[in-house]
Amino acid sequence: MPEENTPPGYTGPGSPQDVPPRPGELGVDPATLPPAIRDELQAPEPVAIDTASPELKDGVNRCPKCGASDIRQKPGSDLLVCAFCHTQWSAGRVEEQYGFGTGLDQLEGTTVSSGAQDIATDAAALVTFKCSGCGAAVTLNTQSEMTARCHWCRHVFGVNEQVPNGAVPDAVLPFHIMKDDAVARIRQFVGKRRLFALKQFKEQFTPENVSAVFLPYMIVDARASADVAGKGEIQTASYTRGEGKNRRTYYDADVYQIERHVEFTVDDLPLEPSRDRGNLDTRANTNNIINTILPFDTKNAVKWNASYLRGSSSEKRDLDVSQLQPRLADQLQSIARAQVEASVQRYGRGVRWEQEGIEVRGTRWVAMYLPVWLYSYHQPESGGGILHYIAVNGRTGETMGSVPVQQWKLLLTALTVGTFLESIVLWILAHTS
Predict the structure, then answer these.
(1) What is the pTM of this model?
(2) Could you read off the pLDDT of 214-223 as tens digits, one per residue?
(3) Where in 272-336 does DSSP place strands (E)?
(4) pLDDT digit string (tens) for 132-158?
(5) Do residues 78 and 92 touch, judged by C-beta distance below 8 A?
(6) Neighbour-count burial for 87-121, b at 16+ CB within 10 Å, e otherwise
(7) Please, are residues 304 and 170 in contact by the beta-carbon 8 Å criterion?
(8) In this structure, are residues 116 and 164 in contact, taking their beta carbons and an 8 Å threshold?
(9) Distances (CA, A) of 400 to 123, 228, 275, 287
(10) What does R_g of the chain's alpha carbons equal in angstroms?
(11) What's the angle, vertex CA 186, arms to CA 284 and CA 406, rounded to 5?
C-alpha cells in the first residue's frame, strides 16, 4: 500500500495504480466505462443446471435389472435394451425431468445446462476410464466416438460424465429412421436428378456407405422484446403515360411512418455450435443442406446416455454460449419481423424497415445431439474441389442434398427449352395476325 507521504499523482511502485484490486472488485469505476463493457462486466454469472447422471459417471451403462453393461438402443424407438436379459427402459425425456419446457415468460439473464457450459481451454479430446470389471485403462477419442468396449473383459464404456471439452451434451434425440430407410430415401433423391448428374458421381454412387452421425446443437429458449420502425406505403392511384416503347405506368401512394413494439418468447430454437458446420462457403462444401432438413422433434429428446450412440459417429461442439450470442440476436430479430408482419398487411405497396432493435431479456441453453444420416461425395476440381452432402433427418426422414451436375447438360436443356418456347410464341403470333 502507498505510504502517507506518497506525492500526489504518483503512479510508480506502491501507488494505487500498482495495487491489484481485491477479489470481487473491478479496480475501476464502472460508471467511467463504455456502456457495452460496463453491462458485460456487471452482468450476472450464468446460472447452471446440473444434468449429469451420478449413476453413469464411472462410464459403464448398466442394466437396472441384471447389471450387465451391453446396452444398446431398441431400433426405431427411444428405449434402451439390455442385450443379456432383454430388459427395456428409457432414459426419460430431458424436458420433463428438468422443466426445460416451462417458464419461458419468466426467463431472466442467462441459464445454461451443465452440458452447455464453456469448454475448458486446456481440455483434451482423449478421455481415459478405469474399467470397473478388470481394472484396465480404456481410452476414448471424443472427437469421433463416445462408446468403446474393454478389450479384456468386454465391459462397454460410454462418456457420460460431462467432461469440459464440449463432447458430452445434456440430451440426445435417438434415431428413428433406420439405415435401410435412409438408403432408400437417398437413392430416390438421387434418382430424380440422375439425368443431369456428373458421370463419375453416377458411377461411384453407393448409398450403402451412408453414415449415422450425431451433430451437436444448442437448443435455446428465449424471452425478448423488439422495436422496429420504418415506412409503409398504401397505393392511391395508378396511371399510364407515353406511347409504344415509352409507355410507362406510374403509381401514387400515401407514405406512413410505422413503429412497432413486440414482446415474445421462443421455444427450442436450434443453433449450430460448430465452426465447421457454420462455414456455409458453398465453394468448398454443401453442409448448408443440414439446415434444410430441420426441424427435429426436440421435445422428445431424452437424458444423455452414451448407449444411444452405439454404432454411430459424433462431432464435438467448439463454440460456447457467449460466442453464439450474436447469432441468437440475429435469429430473434428475424422472428420479431415475422411477429409484426400481420399488423402491416394494410400497406399494400410494402414496408421498408429502417430501424431495428432487439433486447434479449432471458435465455436458457441446452446442449443436444441430433441424429442425421449423411452421404458424401467429393467432386475433384481445381482448388481442392467441393464436398457434396446428402442428408436425411434421423427422426422425420426429411431428405435434402447436393448432386454434382454436368454443366453442359443443363446448358443444352436450357437452350432446347428456350428454342421450343420461342417457336411456340412465333407460331401463335403468325396465326393471330
Answers:
(1) 0.79
(2) 999 999 999 9
(3) 302-303, 313-314
(4) 777 778 787 888 788 877 777 777 778
(5) no
(6) eeeebebbbeebebeeebeebeebbbbbbbbebee
(7) yes
(8) no
(9) 35, 35, 21, 11
(10) 29
(11) 50
